[in-house]
Amino acid sequence: MRCPNCGERDTRVVDSRDLDDAAIRRRRECATCTSRFTTYERIESARLTVVKRSGTREDFDRAKVAAGIQKALTRRPVPAGAADEAADAIEAHLRSLGANEVSSTTVGELSMERLRALDQIAYIRFASVYQSFDDLEQLKREVDTLFAERSPEVPGQVSLELVAPAPKRIALTGPGGSPTRRPTRRR
Q1: What is the C-alpha radius of gyration for the chain, rounded to an integer number of angstroms?
Q2: Under a CB-based contact definition with an 8 Å cutoff, are residues 117 and 154 in contact?
Q3: Best CA proximity match to 47, nearest among 104, 103, 99
Q4: Are 83 and 69 spatial neighbours (Cβ–Cβ below 8 Å)?
Q5: HEC assignment per residue over the chain
């Protein structure tokens, strides 16, 4: 491993920790300039190829999946690493299928399943782009389906109401039920 400071190849591992089942964090020190830096190692599995709708093929990119999910989760009340965890789970599922090639439709559907479980608003955001809704009727049907299936265990989801209910007004009454006037302040 080259030192990012001086470019020397002679570095030693100072500390090594497992982050999860698929990654290792290593602290390294350069023998020449004594600067320290961190590297992350991932186990490289067999290549997984995604076949797109157009028929073109490209390598599966976990970071691309995580970025798409993160974009849908922007400003939503979910944990910080939710997109990365979802991308890891999607990759693990795809690899468990045992095939070297998967369709982009499969990747998109798995992403929508994860988002549906994480946050329903993020799911609608992702689905509106992924499924290319042509009109508001398609979007409304999808929201109605979610509303019918709404479950209380989804964190941060109180309701799917598109318009908040109007606040209740409280009438101020005095003795005998007559309206009271607020006293005005004099300066």
Answers
A1: 26
A2: yes
A3: 99
A4: yes
A5: CCCCCCCCCCEEEEEEEEEECCEEEEEEEECCCCCEEEEEEECCCCCCEEECCCCCEEECCHHHHHHHHHHHCCCCCCCCCHHHHHHHHHHHHHHHCCCCEEEHHHHHHHHHHHHHHHCHHHHHHHHHHHCCCCCHHHHHHHHHHHHHHCCCCCCCCCCCCCCCCCCCCCCCECHHHCECCCCCCCC
**Residue 153 is encoded by which pair of tokens?**
């265990």
Q: Beta strands 36-42 and 49-51: pairing type? A: unpaired
**How do the pLDDT tens digits run along the chain, 187 residues long?**
889 889 888 899 999 888 777 788 999 999 999 999 999 887 766 789 999 989 999 999 999 999 999 999 989 999 989 999 999 999 999 989 888 999 999 999 999 999 999 998 999 899 888 887 778 888 888 888 888 877 555 555 555 444 445 555 555 555 555 555 555 566 5
CA distance 52 to 80: 30
| Residue extents of the structural domains in the chain | 11-42, 49-148
Contact 151/166 with Cβ under 8 angstroms?
A: no
Q: Which two tokens stand for residue 53?
A: 């709708």
pTM of the predicted model as reported, rounded to 2 decimal places: 0.57
